UniProtKB/TrEMBL annotation:
Superkingdom, natural source: Bacteria
SUPFAM superfamilies: S-adenosyl-L-methionine-dependent methyltransferases
MF GO annotations: oxidoreductase activity, acting on the CH-NH group of donors; tRNA (5-methylaminomethyl-2-thiouridylate)(34)-methyltransferase activity
Domain MnmC-like methyltransferase per the UniProt entry, residue ranges: 112-217
GO aspect biological process, one term: methylation
UniProt xrefs under InterPro entries: MnmC-like_methylTransf, SAM-dependent_MTases_sf, tRNA_MNMC2
Protein name, as recorded: tRNA U34 5-methylaminomethyl-2-thiouridine-forming methyltransferase MnmC
UniProt entry keywords in alphabetical sequence: Methyltransferase, Transferase
The keyword Transferase appears for this protein: yes
Length: 218
């Protein structure tokens, strides 16, 4: 991918994909977006001491770093599994400034330097496994309490918002598990409902009116 680092409005970095004309995060603030969507309206809703997370789209590693910070602050045990088809190069990830914003006791580089397909105990609160594969090809026997759905937007990668992919997310979740994403597109919401999710719209991060939290109800 033809990517370059940009500075978002909260001072944190994101990446701009020139060929797509799309950024990895909101231009209004990468860190504040991820905190709002995946922490405040995601993992913080799960009232368990041990939480299994599955992330669709590892990207810059920002969500993993914020989740580690959450696990330490809340004294939770988090198992974090993530999928990435097009990992960043060392030149790209080493320049990202998330360590200036996040107090996680582990640097962003650590997550990128951990080899794919090798389970790792990042610290006593956080276990980590990343897969170098396309979402379409991913499979696992593990089940999760929450799915972070952080792929590129529907207008850029509509195939990742298909019924088939959303069904995979549903199937990977435990009963009452949460599917959370920054998006709130009517077509996607209808697909989520058809699959069996209970869809809730909530206030989006700065620059976005709404986002979605969906619950797997059986």
């Amino acid at each position: 991918m033809d990517r370059e680092i940009i500075i978002t409005k909260d001072g944190s970095h994101s990446l701009f994909v020139k060929s797509m004309g799309e950024t990895f995060h909101s231009k209004h603030g990468a860190v504040q977006e991820s905190l709002h969507v995946y922490i405040k309206n995601g993992i913080d809703l799960i009232k368990k001491d041990s939480i299994n997370v599955l992330e669709f789209g590892f990207g810059t590693g920002l969500n993993a770093l914020l989740t580690l910070q959450f696990a330490i602050e809340k004294n939770k045990k988090v198992y974090y599994e993530t999928i990435e088809a097009y990992p960043l190069s060392e030149k790209e990830y080493s320049l990202l400034n998330y360590d200036d914003f996040i107090n996680s006791a582990v640097s962003l580089n650590t997550f990128h330097e951990i080899p794919f397909e090798i389970p790792s105990n990042v610290n006593v609160n956080f276990s980590f496994l990343k897969h170098h594969t396309k979402i379409e090809d991913f499979t696992t026997e593990n089940r999760f309490d929450i799915v972070y759905f952080d792929v590129f937007g529907y207008d850029y990668q509509s195939e990742l918002w298909s019924v088939e992919i959303l069904q995979k997310a549903y199937d990977f979740l435990n009963p009452n598990g949460i599917f959370v994403t920054y998006a709130c597109k009517g077509l996607v919401n209808r697909r989520l409902k058809e699959i069996g999710f209970e869809v809730h719209k909530t206030q989006g991060p700065p620059g976005k009116r709404e986002m979605v939290v969906a619950v797997k109800k059986l």
